[in-house]
Specification:
206 residues; mainly alpha; 5 helices
């Protein structure tokens, strides 16, 4: 509502609204962005706890599981969880910088939005990069659990590797990419969209 009121004031300039200065715009932008930033922080903290739980479970799997492929799976999940936690901690650091904008609030929020967009893109491509890695894990599972030995130099072995490492990830690329985009949009994208809309409304030249 505040943005709508401000837009109407700009469209109908009066002596009162003419006095609207940069400080008033900054205060309005701070109020509009504060709730959005807090929602982004909550999403990042939720993911942080979820990834912490994944690491605990993966460590237990890596230590207690007997099959080699399950041990490798546990170790891989630990590595993925560690990368995700590092990503989320960096995101939270970016979000906490709002508490000390150190000058131009608009420019500070613009840099923050740009940094978060970059991190979200990293998360998206990192998820897709895990598809062939999961394929390699499937190869290991098949090789270690097959009733009859499968040599990697044999035709069945080559077909297994090609199918699990190349064909299966290719088939999963679009559905996994779509689900990941929706997930990221729900947790972060919709709030970033609002923040960027506020910045466009109140930015230089608005």
């Amino acid at each position: 509502m505040e943005l709508d009121d401000l837009r109407r004031q700009w469209q109908q300039p009066t002596e009162t609204t003419a006095a609207l200065d940069a400080a008033a715009l900054t205060r309005l932008l701070a109020r509009q962005s504060d709730g959005i930033i807090e929602k982004l922080r909550r999403s990042a903290r939720l993911e942080l706890w979820l990834n912490g739980g994944v690491i605990v479970g993966a460590l237990a799997l890596a230590v207690l599981a007997r099959p080699l492929w399950l041990q490798v799976c546990g170790g891989l999940l630990v590595a993925i969880g560690a990368v995700c936690i590092g990503y989320l901690l960096r995101k939270l650091r970016l979000l906490h910088r709002l508490d000390d904008p150190a000058g131009d609030l608009w420019a500070h929020l613009a840099r923050l939005a740009s940094g978060l967009r970059s991190l979200i893109q990293f998360y998206y491509w990192f998820t897709l990069a895990m598809l062939p890695v999961a394929g390699l894990l499937n190869v290991l599972m098949v090789l270690t659990t097959a009733r009859h030995p499968i040599g990697l130099a044999t035709v069945p072995g080559v077909l297994t590797v090609v199918g699990l490492v190349l064909l299966l990830p290719a088939l999963l690329y679009l559905p996994v990419g779509s689900v990941t985009k929706k997930y990221l949009q729900h947790l972060y994208g919709q709030h970033l969209d609002r923040l960027e809309a506020n910045l466009r409304e109140l930015g230089p030249g608005a």
